[in-house]
Amino acid sequence: MDNIRVTRRARTALAIAAGTVLTAVVVQIPANATVAPAAHHGATAASSARNSSISVGAYDDTYYKDAEGKTGQALKDSLHRIISSTQTGKLTYSQVWDALKDTDEDPANSANVILLYTGRSQSKTANGSNPDDWNREHVWAKSHGDFGTDTGPGTDIHHLRPADVSVNSTRGNKDFDNGGTEVGEAPGNYTDDDSFEPRDEDKGDVARMILYMAVRYDEGDGCPDLEPNDQVGNGSQPHIGRLSVLKQWSKEDPPNAFEQHRNQVIFDKYQHNRNPFIDHPEWVDAIW
Asked: Which tens digits make up the pLDDT trace of 189-216?
């Protein structure tokens, strides 16, 4: 399956280089949803790279001042202090619904949100528990550390995203890794017994959300010490893998305008802290 996927990606890269327009696979959507292009991801790696430079350095002299010039554990510790001390806004789990309607708004349709894993544009009001509704996906599965949905890591919207209910259920609490069988309802995503691989357009987003959580919840606050590792099947331990794969995903899918805008909305209106790996994706390798 991995070899098949590599071939698929190689063909995609060649097609993009030749200027070919790739057509997305349409998935089943509820009647009140509106299909729109997944505007939060550029058509090419080059456009993603251009988008990723929009906010680089914007907060270096202020917000990240104490982290500048550091690497390794010193950088991780400094970022932990920064994003913990500036998180002056904390939400309840019920407040997350309205926050996600804002942070993940479809830039092409203000009545909709963009769903993680499918890229589907869906009505903000189509949230709930029906199979084709959207609900609140904990990208760092809440069972990995057993932190539940109390205010804290369970309500941190830097890792909470709107997702199709049944696709969210398919992901469950699995670790992240390459491989598996393609998810029929969400083409481009793959899963097996112990891992989930998101579609290429969401890989970097997932990686940076996981690594944000590892830095933000790094002891203290009465919360579990969340750490990525390089294995799957972590169960209820406060770990998620595979770190080596997440690092690669972050490189392959750099931050773009949608992800940067989301980070800014969370900073300005809700939690008042930032995901440093969206602002500085190079800090992933500087720490890990």
From this structure: 999 999 999 999 999 999 999 999 999 9
